[in-house]
Design a protein that fits this description.
alpha+beta, 8-stranded antiparallel sheet, 12 helices
């Protein structure tokens, strides 16, 4: 009794985890985030995997950036290396600072992980990051709370993963921690964590006893502790569904759950579903649509619902035609068969265009020129502007390089900042007369109103071998069958803007993506190719503060797409998402044109693969020509943020048998997610199929008791229920539901007098009560288990904070 009273006193104040968290949030979370609470946390070195020479682990306690020996260096460079630190007393560690040597060093940690815990047997990952290879100290925030509950740590384990120099030992020069060390706060945090653990332990026991139909123990434990397993609405659903088998009332509760918005969170977190639609022009003139091409350019006027298309390469020659697509009428319109004749740009490909909604103008910059044919040609970088309302072309500049802008470039990126009337241009290969030397353009801004160019970042020169794509004629636009060559990278022949101290170097590249978010005033730059390297990095450039941040060096290692270039990317600034479609990709063993669509969540720094089709061959894609687009690169894609639709046109399919083949198919892509109403329907389908299973079992029992009868009454009732109640809520597009429905149909239709009672789906002893509505004590265990699984499936669509714990008591017991 004494132990019981202690348990009751511990939990009497709190009956739910949410109450503990709310109280903790009010008293603690606001305190530990206050600047006045942050103190330097003293520590000692507890352990390490190894060390080399005089580079002892204790060296990291001292910040001596001028001393080459003032560091810990591992004895080997494998990924079993670590160093463990111990705080003098438990603390809430909020930041970790890495000091560095006074110049870059090959042993600096390119990637590492940090773990924390109160003991060495229970450590949690609290950081996964990488350092810049420079001389500037770097501070990182540490994860110090989970589910709004702060947690203290006394041990920190740092695990190096890679260095900047291949096969070099790991080095850490200096470590410093800041956080909360106040004993009263730490005691409060420890006490709140203990309360939460006690409540969660009781909830796990309650879940275990209820799932195993030990209801007397379940009720006794709940009455004694006062701990709630879940929200009352779900407790009622369990009683009505699992215990009573009242499916009609259960459906009404499901509708209440839907109306209260409890399916919304699950729906928002479901994966996107791609919906493709091939668009055929409504014009009766078969020639009144753009022909096949790659390397063309598109932009969109969202307000007027028009998609503009200019130029490209049809496999034999550059094009200079100019079109717009009326989204509402689904009709292509030819603005000009030859823009050069109208005072506009000459035929070109691999250029860039962008639409400025403020001036209602389209800007055109760059073009591809064959390296072997450009010695005597015009290599000046012309710059054009097209006023869409006046249908008028203006030559802004005959040579932007002479005015402080980029040289003649191709495969660059260009986007508009409508708030400041600015255009940002980044990357692309510089056309160098009569040379295979690689030069890449930097990051420029063009001020539209004042007609001024500014260089924001110059390229970082490097050298290497020309990779399999750019060594070939750009006319092939990436055909893998062409022959390899070699080249070097040359610096820009003009002055380069210096990278501010402490910021990463932005490598110029070609075939990359760049998007502008006007709400946050940031440019996002990623992927592309630089000589032989396919890139998979992501940068964010704050245009107002001139700050550059490397978000990730290689997103392919973080569940993202393979490195590549010529992928096409759009942005939804409201959802904070980037949409990346197809492109020329580099896998671990070979280069390939992939047919895939990825979504990158900017806020969460998280990738999601929405769609991929590994189908190969012309015959396969001929069958799929009206269902979804074939693999391609050098295509174009624009996004209508109002209708949330993507528009994709043309490209190069990478056909090794016909290298000049280009595409002219036009597609609309709409990404959708499961809606809360769909989840309600799915839940009702699960309920009705479970009821049908029970009706089938009753029919089997009746058939066993009366084997002479051809079709039992209960079989007829089950078949009628299947037709009238299950079929109307079936989603025939869902393979899982369709398979289950067909299996149930087969079971019912084959339930005749020839059934073998010994091999029956369920024997007489396994089903004691013929009614689906039974009192709890007499409920069959097998029926109870089936309904419990059903209940778990339904509550799986609901927020975690209102339902029973996901963990199982059995799973946490280690034997």
């Amino acid at each position: 009794m004494e132990k019981d009273s202690v348990l009751n006193s511990n939990l009497a104040e709190y009956s739910t985890s949410e109450q503990v968290l709310n109280e903790h949030s009010k008293l603690v979370m606001t305190t530990i985030t206050a600047p006045s609470s942050q103190k330097k946390i003293p520590y000692t070195v507890f352990d390490c995997s190894s060390h080399s020479g005089l580079y002892y682990p204790q060296n990291i306690c001292y910040n001596n950036p001028e001393d080459l020996s003032s560091r810990w260096s591992s004895g080997v460079c494998n990924q079993t290396q670590y160093i463990t630190l111990r705080f003098d007393s438990p603390a809430i560690a909020r930041t970790i600072l890495f000091g560095k040597y006074h110049e870059s060093h090959v042993c600096n940690l390119k990637e590492f992980k940090v773990y924390g815990g109160m003991n060495l047997e229970d450590m949690t990952e609290i950081l996964h990051q990488g350092l810049r290879n420079d001389n500037q100290p770097e501070e990182f925030p540490l994860r110090h709370a989970a589910n709004n509950m702060a947690f203290p740590v006394q041990y920190i384990k740092i695990v190096p993963l890679t260095t900047f120099g291949e096969k070099f030992n790991y080095s850490i020069w200096y470590i410093e921690f800041c956080g909360v060390t106040d004993k009263d706060i730490i005691q409060k945090v420890v006490a709140d964590n203990q309360k939460l653990k006690e409540i969660e332990t009781v909830r796990l026991c309650l879940k275990h006893f209820r799932q195993r139909n030990m209801m007397d123990i379940f009720r006794g434990l709940q009455e004694r502790t006062g701990v709630k397993l879940e929200e009352p609405l779900l407790t009622r659903l369990h009683k009505v569904l699992v215990v009573d088998g009242d499916y009609e009332t259960s459906e009404n509760i499901i509708k209440d759950i839907y109306q209260q918005g409890l399916f919304d969170e699950y729906a928002n977190n479901t994966k996107y579903i791609p919906n493709w639609r091939r668009i055929y022009s409504s014009s009766t003139d078969s020639n009144n649509a753009p022909g096949p091409r790659g390397g063309h350019q598109m932009c969109i006027d969202i307000e007027r619902g028009k998609v503009y298309l200019l130029g490209g390469w049809d496999g034999k020659q550059d094009l200079s035609d100019f079109w717009y697509f009326d989204i509402q009428k689904e009709k292509w319109n030819l603005l000009s068969p030859d823009t050069c004749q109208d005072g506009g740009p000459s035929a070109r490909s691999c250029h860039k265009i962008c639409f400025d909604p403020t001036s209602r103008s389209i800007f055109v910059l760059g073009r591809y020129v064959e390296s072997h044919a450009n010695t005597d040609g015009n290599l000046d970088s012309d710059f054009y502007r097209y006023n869409v309302d006046k249908d008028k072309w203006t030559l802004i500049s005959t040579n932007t390089a002479a005015e402080g802008g980029p040289q003649l470039i191709y495969d660059h990126e260009m986007c508009v900042d409508p708030n400041t009337n600015s255009i940002y241009v980044f990357g692309g290969r510089v056309v160098v007369g009569g040379s295979t030397v690689h030069s890449y353009s930097g990051l420029f801004v063009y001020l539209i109103n004042s007609n001024i160019w500014k260089l924001l970042r110059g390229d970082t020169p490097s050298s290497g071998t020309l990779g399999e794509h750019y060594q070939n004629s750009r006319r092939n636009l990436g055909n893998p069958s062409t022959t390899a060559a070699t080249a070097t990278t040359a610096p820009l022949p003009r002055s380069s803007a210096q990278t501010p101290s402490g910021q990463p170097q932005l490598k110029s590249r070609a075939g990359h993506s760049m998007l502008f978010d006007p709400t946050t005033r940031d440019l996002y730059i990623f992927a592309g190719q630089r000589i032989k390297d396919f890139l998979a990095d992501i940068y964010r450039f704050a245009v107002d503060t001139d700050d550059l941040i490397e978000i990730t060096e290689d997103y392919s290692k973080n569940s993202g797409p393979d490195p590549g270039y010529t992928q096409r990317t759009t942005i939804d600034t409201t959802k904070r998402e980037l949409y990346v479609f197809s492109g020329y990709m580099r896998t671990t063993s070979y280069d390939v044109v992939k047919n895939s669509l990825w979504v990158y969540n900017i806020t969460q720094n998280k990738w999601e693969k929405v769609y991929q089709n590994e189908g190969r061959g012309r015959e396969y894609w001929h069958k799929m020509q009206n269902k979804e687009p074939c693999p391609r690169f050098a295509h174009q894609m624009v996004y209508d943020s109002n209708s949330k639709r993507q528009y994709i046109f043309g490209g190069n399919p990478g056909d090794s048998k016909d290298v000049s083949r280009r595409l002219n198919d036009f597609w609309e892509l709409k990404l959708t997610k499961t809606k809360p109403k769909d989840i309600m329907r799915r839940s009702v389908f699960l309920l009705r199929t479970q009821k049908l299973r029970e009706m089938h079992r009753q029919a089997e029992l009746e058939q066993q008791n009366n084997p002479v009868k051809l079709v039992s009454t209960k079989t007829k009732q089950a078949l009628e229920y299947l037709r009238s109640y299950v079929s109307p809520v079936l989603d025939e597009k869902c393979e899982e539901e369709l398979d289950e429905f067909q299996r149930l149909c087969a079971c019912l239709c084959l339930a005749d007098h020839s059934i073998d009672t010994k091999q029956s789906f369920i024997s007489q002893n396994m089903f004691k009560v013929p009614s689906s509505k039974v009192s709890h004590p007499d409920l069959s265990d097998i029926i109870f288990s089936g309904r419990t699984r059903l209940y778990n499936s339904v509550i799986g669509f609901m927020p975690q904070n209102i339902k029973e714990p996901e963990e199982s008591l059995v799973d946490i017991i280690k034997i």
